[in-house]
Amino acid sequence: MKAPLFVRPLTTEERQALQVGLRAREAFTLRRCQILLASADGKTATEIAALFGCATQTVRNTLRAFAAEGLSCLTEKSHRPKRVRPLLAGTQVERLRALLHRSPRDFGKPTRLWTLSLAAEVAFEQGLTERQLSHESIRQALMRLGVGWKRAKTWIASPDPHYARKKSDATG
Which Pfam families match (predicted)? Predict the structure, then answer.
C-alpha cells in the first residue's frame, strides 16, 4: 500500500494566501484552497474527499499541482489542447484528392457520385486514415486544398475522353 499523500509544510505566506482563497468567487480556487489547508492539517486524501464531497483523485491532483506549481495552481488553466493538428495532412490530403478524381464504382460502391461520408468510408478502406473520419473532417481537408465541396464539379474530371464536350453541352 502506498504511503498517504500530504501537502508539504506551508510557509506563513502560503497559508495566508490559502486563507484568502477561501473567500474567492471561483469555485475552483475555493475547492483547491480547502483541499490544501485540510491536507496541511494532516487529513488524508480519502478524508478530504469525504469532507468536501469530491473524488480522491481530485485531492491527489490538487496536492501534486501544488507541489509542482506552488500557489499558481489555484487559478484554473485553459482546457484547450496545446496544439491541434489536422487528421489529414500533407500527402494524405493529396491522396484524398486523387481518390476523389476516380469513380466510387472503382472502389465497389453502387453509386457514381461522391458524398463526404462515402469519401470518408473509402479513405478508411484504402488505408488513407487509421480510423474512419467524419464527413466534417473530409470537408475541412478539402477546404485546406482550396476546394469547396458544393463546387466539386469544377475540379473533378471524368476519365471519359468526351467529358469536356458533354459538360459544355450540358452547361451551355
Answer: HTH_23 (PF13384)
